Sequence to fold (300 residues):
Amino acid sequence: MAFDEVKTLDRCTVDVEDYSGRKKFPSRWIVFDDGKPCVPHSLSMVGRGYSDVFVGETVRLNGFVAKGLNAKKVEITFPSEKKVVIPLKNENGKEVFSKTVTFNELGYYSIRCGKNSSAFEVLYRATPLPPLKTVRDLFNYTKDIQENSAITFPYGKDETIRLFVTDANGNPIVNKPIGMYDAKTDGRGIVTLQLKYKNGEETINGKRVNWWWLYGYLLYFHYIETDINIKDTDVKYINGDIYIPKTQVLGYFSNDDIRDTKVINGKAYADLDTLRSGTGTSVIVTDKKIRFMKVWFLAP
Fold:
């Protein structure tokens, strides 16, 4: 969602992010054919063991369990201790299950099959609000849908993060806890989080941040930014493109980031426009300076 698509919040309406194509962290002992819920075999992989399911989402769970479990059922326990039991049946040599489940409670669920169990979390949907920028906004990153929609900040700067919080169906969550950071939404469904840096540690609302998972499916990344003065740079303007000595660019980017060069009077120049190529790098040129930006932690 581009931020200029956000509608007025006075009526609590906002275009929410399209989360199709989410990353999958499947369990080793149970496989859901549609990838939900995403039950990680190691919670440390994803910080809090997020499930890939939003509160209020109805999911058709079709899948099978690993061989040798000798189990008869899959049992899901809600945060309220309500249980959903899904019987197993043998089809073509596989122990399979199928059931439609609505995950209508915020918090941790457990899933058990035989002696195996895992925990996963169901949270609300969160959409970042201006002036926050996403990786897509600044870097036009194209390799991964989830990383492209991640919020990104300059490294080392405190930030105020405003999120519009809804259930899976887009209904605003008003004046309720969001299940993290001891935070709750206001009367319009907006939650405000404070990201702070101190002594090399990042916290949100005073809580230590797990990896770069901000909330549920929503990630955040840092980017490094460096300015160089135009007056200190040998700038060449060729057919509408901007070139500067390649040696200056290599101070911030690798050869792989540079897609086009020209040799002028025996000296190699890099085309700054080719750094805006969906690789997680970006360049902003004004009449006074050139700003180089590169985002961290993107998939190779």
